[in-house]
Amino acid sequence: MMKANEVSRLTELPISTLRFYERKQLIPEQFISRDENNYRIYDEEVVDYLQDVRMLLTLGFTIQELILLINESSHIEKKALVAEKIKYIQELEAQLEASKTFLKNVLEGKANFQTRCKYKQ
User: Fold this and answer.
1) Which of 98, 100, 66 is nearest to 85 (CA)?
2) 36 pLDDT exceeds 60?
3) Rounded distance, CA 109 to CA 93, Å?
4) For position 96, what pLDDT does the model report?
5) CA 43, 44, 46 angle in degrees (round to 5)?
6) How far is Cα of residue 64 from the mean position of the Cα atoms in its chain?
7) What is the three-class DSSP state of 2?
8) Is the pLDDT at 118 greater than 70, yes or no?
9) What is the mean pLDDT of residues 67-90?
10) pLDDT tens per residue across span 17-27
C-alpha cells in the first residue's frame, strides 16, 4: 500500500492530478482505501493502471471517453470506442506516410513544389 506522494513519484503525476482523477472516478475504488488517520492509501496495482490511463490520454482519448471506458459503457460500446480510436490512428498514420513521401520528393527534386534557393556570398 502506498500514500499519494509515492504514487505521484512513481507515476510522475502530480497529486492534484490524482485527486482530479478520483473526482472524475477515473481511479476505481478498488485501488483506494483509507488508513487509520483517514489518509488515502493506494493499492500498488494503481501504478500500472495509471500508466495505462496516461497512454490512453496520449492516444487521444478525452477524459469523458475514459470515464465511459472505465465506468459506464457496455462491452459493445467500449469496443466501438476503442475501434474508433484505432481507425483514427490509422488515418493519422496514412497522413504521416503521405507527408513523409512528399518531403522525400521535395528533397530529391521530384515534387511539383520546388523553390530555388539563392545564396549571397
Assistant:
1) 66
2) yes
3) 24
4) 97
5) 75
6) 13
7) strand
8) no
9) 88
10) 999 999 988 99
| Three cell numbers written together for 24 | 472524475
Tell me if 23 sits within 8 A of 33, measured CB to CB: no
25 vs 15: CA distance, rounded Å:
15
At 71, the amino acid letter reads N
pTM of the model as a whole: 0.72
Give the C-alpha separation, 21 to 28, whole Å: 9
**Residue in the structure block whose three cell numbers are 467500449:** 78
Distance CA 46, CA 32 (A): 8
Calculate the alpha carbon distances from 109 to 98, 103, 114, 117, 118 in Å.
Answer: 16, 10, 7, 13, 16
Q: Return the amino acid letter for 40.
A: R
